[in-house]
Here is the input.
Amino acid sequence: MAPLFSGIMLKLKANVESRKGPSIFQPYFDLIKLFKKEILIPSSSGIFFKIGPYLSFSIYLFISFIIPVLIPTPVIFTASADFLGGALLFSTASFIKVLAAFDSGSNYAKLGASRIMSFNFLSEGTLITVFFGVSILTGTNNPYTTNELLTSNPLSNLSLLHLFSLIAFFMLFLFETGKIPLESKGVQELGMIDSGLNFEYSGKLLALNEWGSYIKQYLLGSVLINVFLFPWGLFSGIPLFLIDIPIMFLKWMILIIIITVIETSLAKLRLFRIIDYLAVAFTFSVLFLILSEVISV
Here is the structure.
């Protein structure tokens, strides 16, 4: 479902901008085309450039079995990591992609990797701090238990504390998924933050990186939806879990509309202003962590 949501997002944005836009299934067509193409390896690259896409894609796939992306009850591999472990896995995947970009030998890829390293200390700090705050507030670091506690107490989602965590994680979601006002993939000079890492990739390796980006967007968006925005409405057990599919689709449509409004209303930030943006997100996450500790005491 991850490429589909990305396709719907691009289509809706194009329609709002009075363009026809690609099909909502275009991400699938692109992946199929890339998987059929030959892999070209730069002569200056090393072994890490070749195995990086496989490692990062495997990590994103593994995370999907840890956090509640569809079913609100634990599934296979759930006991392998908690919220903090999931945050560290996201950071590990990003670190692997950066190392692979440096290993490509391309100055353009290194430029994108350098930009990401300049911002990641704030983005990863925000991610980990928010998850720490959620674990203190709910008394658990298990994402499924957290989802159950927030579902059983609807009033907690209306508090100032929850608002801080929502703002921090939503700002982080926009950064990690390369949305305007932070990144513009149509312009290389402005978009070479995350997309710059793929500059030297081709064929199946590029397909794995693109598919991994779709999965990463779906994972972070699902956490945003199922923990911070709309933790209600999911079912477990047979056959009720089948209802989760249209419910998640509806939740994602709401999130896609919100993102489209933001992307079509704001201009791209200058590169040096992204630090200010992430500093605000990190501030909200720290306030959330402090208030969580105060309430727990």
